[in-house]
Write a structure and sequence with these properties.
The chain is α+β, with helices and mostly antiparallel strands. The chain is built from 7 helices and 14 strands. A hairpin with a 3-residue loop joins strand 11 and strand 12. Helix 1 crosses helix 4, helix 1 runs antiparallel to helix 5 and helix 2 crosses helix 4. The radius of gyration is 28 Å and the shape is elongated.
């Protein structure tokens, strides 16, 4: 639907270029659009900046369709016939491009489908996952006989608000978790059923090697996590902008390290297991 909507707007702009009249209010939109495009080309070229300029195409598209109606009403005039001929040529060119006519030089010009695979890979590695709220276990992908756990007891260790988090043998450890996603975004909160505390980063410090802990639930930024696909049925548990929950099989530690999706950094892949 949105692709069709976008086509209608862009085709209306094409009509405006061929049939539209200069001057007036549309001059402001044209200058702003072209000037903004040139500015961001040299300053910082990001797709997100195109959104505001795309809105400027709406009145130009309206003018374009209006010009088409006037062209049809003035079919007997020579000027109108010339414009309609130019319009027909534009439509023919657009139809050829949209139909997928492929030649080496055209593909090099438009880069049709050149980066589709890379783009899908980027989405898979940078798009947050959302699963149903419920009861789960987190197991290290490097050794699924272990799981993420914290000591039993609501008071944690020595009556403190926080408790240590580690990975331990699933045969002797209780590591069931409650995953609850926010209603407004893709953050989730990971609660240990052993002591009702939440997976937490002390003082919200997103630093390399920072230990994680179990802490009383407060729904703060220090307890917000995101899930991302790590392939092969595994997930990455992301904290902040670029940190990932990491494990060390030798020391049984659970800590933060820099998220590295392109190299599949060891210790960042977890198996999320649903518990019925």
């Amino acid at each position: 639907v949105l692709n069709g909507y976008q086509f209608l707007i862009l085709f209306g702009v094409l009509l405006f270029i061929v049939l539209g009249r200069g001057g007036g209010v549309t001059f402001f939109y044209r200058v702003t659009f072209v000037g903004g495009f040139v500015f961001h080309t040299f300053w910082e070229a990001k797709a997100i900046y195109a959104l505001s300029y795309f809105a400027l195409l709406l009145p130009l598209a309206v003018e374009g369709y209006g010009g088409l109606i006037l062209c049809a009403q003035k079919g007997g005039r020579t000027d109108a016939r010339l414009r309609c001929g130019a319009l027909a040529a534009c439509v023919a060119v657009a139809a050829v491009l949209i139909s997928g006519w492929r030649t080496p030089w055209l593909e090099a010009l438009l880069l049709r489908d050149e980066d589709t695979g890379a783009y899908r890979e980027y989405l898979a590695r940078h798009t947050d996952l959302r699963v149903a709220d419920g009861r789960y276990r987190l197991r290290p992908a490097g050794d699924t006989s272990l799981l993420l756990r914290t000591p039993r007891g609501r008071a944690g260790q020595n009556g403190q608000k926080n408790a240590r988090v580690s990975i331990a043998d699933a045969a002797v450890a209780y590591g069931d978790l409650n995953l609850t996603f926010s209603r407004f975004d893709d953050f989730c909160y990971i609660q240990f059923r052993a002591n009702q505390k939440y997976l937490d980063v002390s003082e919200n410090k997103a630093e390399e090697g920072q230990e994680v802990q179990a802490y009383e639930g407060n729904r703060s930024a220090a307890q917000r996590w995101r899930l991302r696909d790590a392939k092969m049925g595994a997930v990455n548990v992301i904290f902040g902008a670029d940190m990932a929950l990491t494990y060390d099989l030798e020391t049984r530690r659970a800590f933060l390290s820099r998220y590295a999706p392109s190299v599949s950094r060891a210790g960042q892949a977890w198996i999320l297991e649903r518990v019925d």
